[in-house]
Amino acid sequence: MNFRSVSIYLVFNVLSAVVPIMALPILTRYLTPEDYGLFTIFTIVSMFAGNAFRLELNMALKREYVEAPQKFSPYVSSATVFSTFMMVPYALVVLLLWPFFDRFYGIPWHWLFLIVLLVYFRFNSMVLHHLWQITNRALPFGIWALTSNILSYGLAILFIFAVGADWRARAWGEWIAAMVAFPVAIYYLRKQYQLRWSFDPALMKKMLRFSLPLLPSGLMSYVFMVSDRMFIAEFSGAHELGLYSVALQLAAAAGLVFSAVLPAWESWVFTSLGPIDGRAIRRIGLRLLGIFAGMCVLVLILPGILGFMMPYLTSKDFAPAQVFLFPCLLATACTGMFNMISAVLIFMRKTVAIAYINAGMVIFNFVCLYIFVSKWGAAGAAYGLALTFTIGSAVLLCCIIRFRKRQALQAESLT
């Protein structure tokens, strides 16, 4: 891996993490735990919609760029045109579903249409981000993430003070930040990757053949991200969900390491690792072991540090969130390890295997959460996620070794 890139990602991740932490005293003073819970529901809906909208085309574009960067323009152009026209059927789906969301989740109908625009804006930004990651452009990526974070939270605070907004202050901040980022992403895609308004059906079919098997996996990954909150909302209510959301925000300190390492890791796997042979598997195992050891240290020491800082970062109404810090940190670490191992199977084009593994994990996860949350509340949700991702990581490693042995046998039979 490129450790210079890792260092740059880490610095900007720390700076980006400082922004919500600095905003936390203001947000927790003017927003209630119920407001945090409603914004969490808004985030859940937008994440699911975003995954369904992009059809994992960002992963296909990343793979095509690695194989033939000089012929990349028709691919990114076709994907952009396709996503633009896909807004029409998605808007029709929203028109059919808005009574359900309005009745059960309290999200007004116009916010659902705003979510459609939000996921369209984010799709183009995400394509650019993935291309920057795979080419190790850590500095512009970090500046982009930091600026977006400052804009989102700054607007949220402005709306709170100016109009006394509730959870919608955070939602408007996210939406406007994405809208501002959209033309900037289009500019860089045109300048650096020759984006044009053109569409090639054959190339589009090729990308969809690669990306669609990843769609269930992508949707399932968001199920993992939101299932804990769904069960907490069902068994414990919006108040405890709000406390848990604050603990997750603080636990993102551990996620800083993975969000710094993952882009450089993917770039190394896709561009520098080479064929997945016995030597490559040993290199992967050694690096994963080192990262895992570092995360164990962080998970053990960060709860005490964050617990000490909580009275200075949140109001007293959020003090009970301290008991959720360790399980949230543990779940964050296990999720990060799973994502790193998944990148290897994506590089091997074993996307169907990832889909099957994720399907099994979803079933196991729901069983765990039903048992754990009903008995131990929000803390049980985090422990259930940690257990699910630990088992999933082990299965992924077994699949990598199995596919490697199968490739070796096929090579021997040909000779």
From TrEMBL:
Subcellular location: Cell membrane
This protein's GO CC annotations: plasma membrane
Membrane-spanning segments: 7-30, 36-55, 75-98, 104-121, 141-165, 171-189, 210-232, 244-265, 286-312, 324-347, 354-373, 379-401
InterPro entries: Poly_Biosynth_Transport (IPR050833), Polysacc_synth (IPR002797)
Domain of life: Bacteria
UniProt keyword terms in alphabetical order: Cell membrane, Membrane, Transmembrane, Transmembrane helix
Coarse class of the protein's main subcellular location: membrane
The keyword Hydrolase is assigned to this record: no
Membrane topology summary: Multi-pass membrane protein
PANTHER family recorded: O-ANTIGEN TRANSPORTER-RELATED (PTHR30250:SF11), PST FAMILY PREDICTED COLANIC ACID TRANSPORTER (PTHR30250)
Protein name: Uncharacterized protein
